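Form P-L/3: holo structure prediction, ligand iron/sulfur cluster.
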Amino acid sequence: MANLLWLQGGACSGNTMSFLNAEEPSACDLVTDFGINVLWHPSLGVELGDNLQKILRDCISGAIPLDIFVFEGTVVNAPNGTGQWNRFAARPMKEWVRELSDVAQYVVAIGDCATWGGIPATAPNPSDSQGLQFLKRNHGGALGKEFRSKAGLPVINIPGCPAHPDWITQIVVAVATGRGAEVALDDFQRPKTFFQSFTQTGCTRNMHFAYKVSATEFGQRKGCLYYDLGCRGPMTHSPCNRILWNRQSSKTRSGMPCLGCTEPEFPFFDLAPGTVFKTQTVMGVPKDLPLGVDKKGYIALTGAAKNAAPAWAEEDIFVV
Amino acid sequence: MVQMEQDALRKHLRTLLEEGLQTEVEPRAYTSEDINHLVHRLQSLRPDDYEGKLQIAGFQLDPYRPPGEVGGDIVQSCETCMYYVVHRQYCELPELAIPVEKDWSCRLWRI
Ligand code: SF4
Ligand code: SF4
Ligand code: SF4
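OUTPUT (holo model):
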């Protein structure tokens, strides 16, 4: 039996929605088959007021062992570092977060807001929001760089806007079944099993990427979305085309660019008008090139690829 | 548009440019704002206003080489442009949507 407590800071509940849509295993399977005891969750918990405060205080005192502390949403520090803009159970949420993190075996940040600040922390960041251990790319965040949970791990970051249900459930199950130490993390504390490959890995448009055939409209089945419509698939670490959404599809498969939501800079370019669905260029060359490719190589490759492109690459091959 | 019509239109566009149609080759559209501005201007044209398209997009019959570009890395021509469909020799930028030749260039080039 592993006790799990889930709290929400500055958030839209998107990750809760995603989690509740989990299917294999479902949120109920976690309880019935994997021995996870949900102490409290904002959408599922029945306790209110004093009863809820008692659960939280018992976790902090050790009367209830806290195995997994899940946090969704940003840690809100406004105004003036007090955190009073996000009060919960009679005190600033940031105080609960600090004390519960200190007693938890594992701390798991779910979604971009909890990992690196996400949309609430976009400049000018009016709520003075932070992620648990990062603020965008800067290591530190609300708990500080050196933070380690009782099991000796930093915060396990499961980014996404929202995170895919499987990313959440699989990590929660691994931790709950004593395999937490096997979860290898990358430099941004993301589980490598999900975040080592790219959104582009498994994308059905890879042949169009290779032959430089561009999609020019959303939803078009032909063409790659990188060149014109702002797809960040070649620079974004996510398994979105390996572990499909609803077991069916992904953004890029349905003709919508990847927005890079699993990377610390998301939302990119601070959401300046015209930057979201348009590839940003300098003198016609994309500002953000596929990871590891330099400008000279990119230009040379483009000439060669376009020359080599077969006629079928320019046709719609996904015929209904 | 069938292939023959496209070939004829391409020829017609070439003739317009050879006969001295003045187009806005410069200033180049290097910022998002510049590009959006051009695209909006193109959207206000009738789809068959080919002269208008050539003028606003700044067409020329040769590749455009940006002044001062070291080593000549960036040579802007339809051949390397993301909107160019090689086998049909066609520009798929929805606001242009015209047959072109690989050595032509315009201000909306992107690689
Ligand atoms: S659509 Fe995006 S993810 Fe797919 S091949 Fe193109 S750049 Fe890559
Ligand atoms: S495709 Fe990109 S933006 Fe969409 S969920 Fe995956 S990583 Fe996020
Ligand atoms: S947008 Fe590209 S393909 Fe179209 S005319 Fe301009 S340079 Fe050529």
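COMMENT: The first helix of chain A runs from residue 14 to 20.
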